[in-house]
Amino acid sequence: MSDTAVQTRYERFAELHRGPGTFIMPNVWDGPSALLFKEAGFRSIATSSAVLAATLGRLDGIHAVGRDEHLNHAALLTSVSGLPINGDFEDGYGETPEDVRATVDAAVARGLAGIGVEDTTGDPAGPIRDFDDAVRRIQAAAAAAHGRIVLTGRTDNFLWGVSDLDDTIRRLSAYAEAGADVLYAPNLPDLASISAVVRAVAPKPVNVLVGPQDAVTLADLRTIGVRRISLGVDPYTHALGATQAAAAKLARGDLTALASDLDFGHIVGLIKG
Description:
The protein is α/β, with parallel strands linked by helices. Helices cover 48% and strands 11% of the residues. It has an eight-stranded parallel β-sheet. Helix 2 (31-39) crosses helix 4 (67-81), helix 5 (97-109) runs parallel beside helix 6 and helix 7 runs parallel beside helix 8 (191-201). The longest helix has 18 residues, at 234-251. It is globular, with a radius of gyration of 19 Å.
């Protein structure tokens, strides 16, 4: 992979965040899913650490997936799709800030356009890192990322049941100051809290996780200044939901249960390009 191609994807991805609009960045799990979203017109896609872990029969958030496994997965999506890929890289895969910096360097070397670093610990008994430790890790990531890869600084407070908007804003503001390019707090409870985060870290862009159960629209998020929307596990569970329904019909003897509007030949054609 040429340095020029890597830099071009980075620049394309960075440009998407400069607005003024809002773009959707679907989370995918394999080559065909990446190609189907590309075919639909999406200009960037992302990995999902939770989905990657699930495809391997493991659990997310407990360091069950290694750095090299995730790097290989993201590099595959890059080579198959040619799109800018944002890697959802848990806590940066390392105990120290220097380890996180090494992960960012490795992501650049593998051609990723973006990388997210969370303030999680991998320990469900104490899932969120100490504030100062989390900031130091973002600082190290930013030092490696600058001008080479879009860095998302993320706090998982609400994802782990720490429903403290003030601490969430404090953390995201510190991550912005430390050099993160994009800020992200999944599972914010409502538009008011999302708007408060957008205002707190402005002018830096904010990513928001949105699912079909959320009572928000694209227009709502545009109005309050959200720049990027990710979808988390929902594209994957949507596909598995269709599989689950078909499996139940097949188990009852319905041999038409797997009928689909999508022909495998179409997937082969996408892969051939």
